[in-house]
Specification:
This protein is α+β, with helices and mostly antiparallel strands. 20% of the residues lie in helices and 19% in strands.
Length: 322
């Protein structure tokens, strides 16, 4: 079980993070990249959306270069704490394993600057129907070209389970590869329409990172939930050209297979929250409260609860004009 975290009484470090000076405005060219009304309807029906080219090649290359500096040890600032459930690869863990590093948008300014471009927020706002979009989390991912290593395969799961301390049902994830990404790379794949399923068989284990869960049970839960909802498991691999982005709903089952390409698969999962999302207590079976990593990092609100609007960790990247 995850131990409860006391949110009050923390001493927060004094630091400054650059905030974009410009307002949330798109260029004429950027507005042409937004999803159409039909594409929004498709997202809400299927639970995923493959975008137009939202990042230039130069921006994607800059993400890749910044990630290499990160792996080499560069930080513009360090996390004030490392919660027990934080996904945080370090060189001592070995190089040829699946790497996950949370909160890279906080630690590396070059990543934050590109990931928070308003166009990403505008697409997420249209898909989710929200007026405001904030970052929730950003995870740097590296999948080595080792198809024989089973731990490099990501089992079927959906993100809402991890975000049980959030009030929102409209959260979503933008998957941003640093290169053309297809099935050979072990691209992300979606279970079509699974965000609309009624879930059965859930327990506290669902709140754990997939690496800490039983893979066979996760596959079994997917099949059981599909059958309960009278659906077939329709797997849709995302073939994502460089600069394009795959978005998925927080309840969409997704996973990824082995990387059989000659090079590593590199990407960032940018998790996004709508403006209405707030912290809520989520009791576990033993009576304790679930703690998400945010809860020991973000500031407290007026009630002493974790503040999921803390701009250092959860900056606004889109706001509709009144």
């Amino acid at each position: 079980m995850v131990a409860p975290v006391q949110a009050s009484g923390r001493s927060m470090p004094s630091l400054e993070i650059t905030v974009r000076a410009e307002k949330f405005v798109l260029t004429t060219a950027e507005t042409k990249l937004l999803p159409s009304a039909e594409e929004v309807r498709s997202y809400r029906r299927r639970g995923w959306y493959l975008s137009e080219k939202l990042f230039t090649d130069a921006e994607v290359d800059a993400l890749s270069e910044a990630s290499e500096r990160f792996y080499a040890g560069h930080r513009d600032r360090d996390l004030p704490a490392h919660p027990a459930t934080l996904a945080y690869w370090t060189p001592g863990m070995g190089g040829d394993i699946l790497r996950h590093n949370d909160y890279v948008h906080y630690e590396v300014d070059a990543l934050r600057e590109i990931l928070t471009k308003p166009l990403i927020g505008a697409v997420a706002a249209l898909l989710s129907g929200a007026e405001t979009i904030r970052v929730f989390q950003a995870t740097l991912i590296y999948k080595p070209p080792r198809p024989e290593e089973k731990s490099n395969e990501v089992p079927w799961h959906f993100d809402r389970n991890y975000w049980a301390t959030s009030t929102s049902e409209r959260m979503l994830t933008a998957f941003i590869p640093f290169h053309d990404c297809g099935e050979a790379n072990g691209t992300i794949a979606m279970i079509d329409g699974s965000h609309r399923w009624e879930e059965i068989g859930a327990d506290d284990s669902g709140t754990l990172h997939f690496a800490a869960r039983d893979r066979d049970r996760m596959e079994e839960l997917l099949q059981r939930n599909a059958e309960h909802n009278g659906c077939e498991v329709h797997k849709v691999p995302m073939v994502i050209p460089k600069g394009h982005v795959s978005f998925h709903h927080c309840r969409t089952y997704h996973g990824s297979g082995a990387n059989t390409a000659p090079e590593a698969r590199r990407a960032i999962s940018l998790h996004l929250q709508d403006g209405d999302n707030r912290w809520r207590p989520y009791p576990l079976e033993d009576g304790s409260l679930l703690a998400y990593n945010h809860d020991s990092l973000v500031r407290c609100d007026a009630n002493g609860d974790p503040d999921y609007t803390d701009p250092r960790f959860c900056p606004v990247i889109w706001q509709e004009r009144a």
